[in-house]
Amino acid sequence: MLNRSRITSRVFITTFALFVAGAASSQEERLEFDWIFSDAGKAATSLPRYAWLANDVVALYSADLPKIERTIETFDANSGRHRNLVDADRAITAISEMLQPDEPYEELGWPDAFGPNGRWAVYEKSGDIVLLDLRTSSVTAVATTESEETSARFSPNGEWLAFVRDNDIYVWNIEKSEEKRLTTDGSDTLLNGTVSWVYWEELLNRADRGYEWAPDSSAIAYLQSDESGVGVMHYVDFEPYLPRLIKQRHPKPGEANPRVRAGVVTLDQAENTWIDLGANLYEYLPRIQWLPDSKRLAVQTMNRPQTKLDIFIADSKTGEAVHLLREVNEGWINVHDDLYFLNNDAGFIWKSERDGYAHLYQFDMHGEMLNQITKGDWALRASGGPPGMSRSISHIDEDEATIYFTALEKASTERHLYSIGFDGENMQRISASDGVHSIRFSPDGSYYVDVTSALNRPPSLAVHAVEKNKSHTIADTASTIPGGFELLDWELFSINARDGFEMPAMMLKPRFFDPEKKYPVVTYVYGGPSAPTVVNAWQGRARGYYHQLLADSGVIVFLVDNRSAAGKSKHDANTIVNQLYGPVELNDLLDGIAWLKSQAYVDPARVGVWGWSGGGSMTLQAMTSSAEFAAGASVAPVSDWRYYDTIYTERYLKRPQDNEDGYASTSNTARAGKLQGRLLLVHGTYDDNVHPQNSWAFSDGLIEAGITFDMMIYPMRKHGISDDAAQLHVYKTMFEFWQRNFQLGD
Question: Which residues, other chains included, contact 320 with Cβ-Cβ below 8 Å and sequence gap of 6+?
Fold first, then answer.
């Protein structure tokens, strides 16, 4: 058993000390926008970047030092010792001399990948690739051509480094410093080992996972994408004097997708084999995965409506494939990485929502189900794991027939680590403290990192032993926020929708709250499928601090998750099929607002709404379909789903030619003339996710209707408007918008 009581006590005492110190402070310190986006503000509750190396050693990179002094450190979970791993100054000097960047590197930075033996780290900088020897801090050039090199990844045996150049796959032998080209037909529209934007964004969790090494390092399985039939978007820069034009392949709903197939190329002869799926037609190929024997791979395919997913087992030498499993859902299939093949063909573990909740099942190698492992009116939820991977399974101990996984069993607003036997017996919750736990196990499963926080408990990072009574807190940010800020506490509760569904909700009340007064309210929304905003996790960084500033200015901040967003079950999520961001989500939001306005301390004439991306869409929907909001700020919204991409949009709405009514009824642009309340519309001109045409179209509808509004445009910013200057500006702009419209004081 782990010593959970000791850890919990330490966190409580530290947090308590923070608020006692704040209460006793002079009040000279105040939370301000400039601090939020300063180096100190960004570092206040940031935790170290981390990765497991060999032999139960964790690599760490912390932002709590000046940039030039930051380096890679290690923590040995067995001995409990810390040490600096790299001479950062030497490494930066070597990289700078080698690459001659236009601007000097301010810090070494976190590697793009570590080698499996813990000796090497690879960096992609300025479109080139360099290798850092972690023992000597010396640097070797891997790929420094005029072309851009990306997607560097070590082979499992640590002898090779693969990467992509000009849409072809190359490998580099570390010992011999020799490069080898594995594919030769890459072009502007034919991508080998790298993926199209729509796959990167909607299927691969914003990771360029276009190839996978065989476990024995003998071959690489990869995706080849033909984008020649995909439509092109354009973005116009404001520089130079004759502005450059940027192009992007982006499939719109109902139009052509990239054509994707899977291949295998060997390292020794660069021989290529295409996986032959025969007469099995498909639209998407979201996953390829090697089996433990390095001779076969699993290939997952989906139909265009995303209601059917098939898994095939393919021979890597011949390409011949046989069907293994079919998953069907009347709404859509959620793609994930919880497919685990047991050694010696003992079967596989697979996560499915076939009973309405995400649970684990065990199958034999013929695709026959042996048993359902997890059961209940709760769902597994991905938490932690390798970057870009959507995994609920944290670790599988085959010798003990035990699975470690993360789930919502305790509450839909929390994430916890559990263990269970293959037979579905002896399920136990391992994580003790309330809140959200992000888990990543060491390669041998002896230890795991737990990154955890709660609404009123800042983030911490600790290493725990699975079997031993041993744990070590590496970073605890409870004392890093200036005490004088006296951050306000969130309240977590639930509200019943009209049919009795319990919607998670949370609220931040102003300082010195007086229930006899009437306060304005700003409601933050997102509303997308299985994308909750009401979570028992620390509300830090820009949005969380922004909400604190609103509360300190006399505003109640309110959040409520509709049934689809809450992520409790697939039953709830499927209620939005054919009407994405439609009446189901809106009715739930309005039920939450009805409860809110019934509170004696709420001023019903001063209730606002804001959101970003999907939340921006929800803001437009709420303000064009109801009269409940006096004002709203919509950042980077989808105004008509015909403007978005195929995979996300059609997952829920299906194709426009198959659901014309659904697209028409959910078009905010079509309802622009019905806008009620004052609107602030915000967009970046290089938003390659939610294209600026969304805001242009909605603006045009407002102009045609004679409705005035506020607008803020961010030149050449993408969807996150993410640089410090722009982030500071957008949050200040929204804050001033509420001050004007709700007559707030300083």
Answer: 276, 314
How many degrees, rounded to 5, is the angle at CA 571 between CA 567 and CA 573? 45
pLDDT value at residue 540: 83
Sheet holding 308-315, edge to edge: 284-290, 296-302, 308-315, 321-328
Question: What order do you get walking across the sheet with 710-714 strand by strand?
Answer: 490-496, 502-508, 556-560, 519-524, 602-612, 631-635, 678-684, 710-714
Contact indicator for 636, 614 with CB cutoff of 8 Å: no
Each residue's pLDDT tens digit, 34-68: 999 998 898 888 999 999 999 999 999 998 888 88
SS3 content of the chain, % helix, strand, coil (to 5): 25, 35, 45
What confidence tens digit (pLDDT) does each residue in 84-112 have? Answer: 999 999 999 999 999 999 888 999 999 99
- DSSP characters over 665-715: HT-TGGGGGG--SEEEEEEETT-SSS-THHHHHHHHHHHHTT---EEEEET
- Type of residue numbered 127: G
Query: pLDDT of 268-315, one tens digit each?
Result: 999 999 999 999 999 999 999 999 999 999 999 999 999 999 999 999
Q: How far apart are CA 457 and CA 19, in angstroms?
A: 11
The pLDDT of residue 68 is: 85
Strand order of the β-sheet with 416-421 is 393-397, 402-407, 416-421, 428-429
Hey, CA dihedral for 566, 567, 572, 573, is it positive or negative?
A: positive
β-pair partners for 610: 524, 633
Report CA dihedral (379, 380, 382, 384) to the nearest 10 degrees: 130
Beta bridge partners of 312: 299, 323
Which residue, chain included where needed, has tokens 């760490």?
60
Angle ∠(224,326,660) on CA atoms, nearest 5 = 75
Question: How is domain 483-740 classified at the CATH fold level?
Answer: Rossmann fold (3.40.50)
Q: What does the alpha-carbon distance between residue 302 and residue 592 come to, in Å, rounded to a whole number?
A: 36
Interatomic CA distance for residues 405 and 163, integer angstroms: 32
Q: What is the pTM of this model?
A: 0.94
What is the pLDDT, as a whole number, of residue 7?
Answer: 28
Query: How confident is the model at residue 4, as a pLDDT?
Result: 29
Residues of the chain predicted below pLDDT 50: 1-27
Q: How far, in Å, CA of 491 to CA of 558, rounded?
A: 10
Rounded CA-CA distance 590/596 in Å is 9
Question: For residues 476 and 11, what is the distance between their CA atoms, to the nearest angstrom?
Answer: 8
Give 384's DSSP letter: B
Query: DSSP strand E in 515-572: where?
Result: 519-524, 556-560
β-strand pairing of 339-341 with 348-352: antiparallel
Which residues partner with 225 through β-bridges? 191, 260
Q: In what order do the strands lie in the sheet with 82-84?
A: 49-52, 57-61, 72-76, 82-84
* 739 three-class SS: helix
Annotated domain spans of the chain:
483-740
Buried b (16+ CB within 10 A) or exposed e, 342-368: beeeebbbbbbbeebbbbbbbbeeebe
User: How far is C-alpha 733 from the geometric centre of its chain's CA atoms?
Assistant: 26
Share of the chain above pLDDT 90, in %: 90
Closest Cα partner for 309 from 289, 340, 283? 283
| CA separation, residue 622 to residues 272, 632, 672 (Å) | 53, 9, 11
* H-helix or E-strand spanning residue 154: strand 149-154
Alpha-carbon span 212 to 737, nearest angstrom: 48
Q: Which of 557, 546, 560 is nearest to 622 (CA)?
A: 560
- Residue 556 phi/psi, 5-degree rounding, is -80, 130
pLDDT score recorded for residue 3:
35
pLDDT at 175: 96
What pLDDT, on a 0 to 100 scale, did the predictor assign at position 28?
54
Residues in the chain: 746
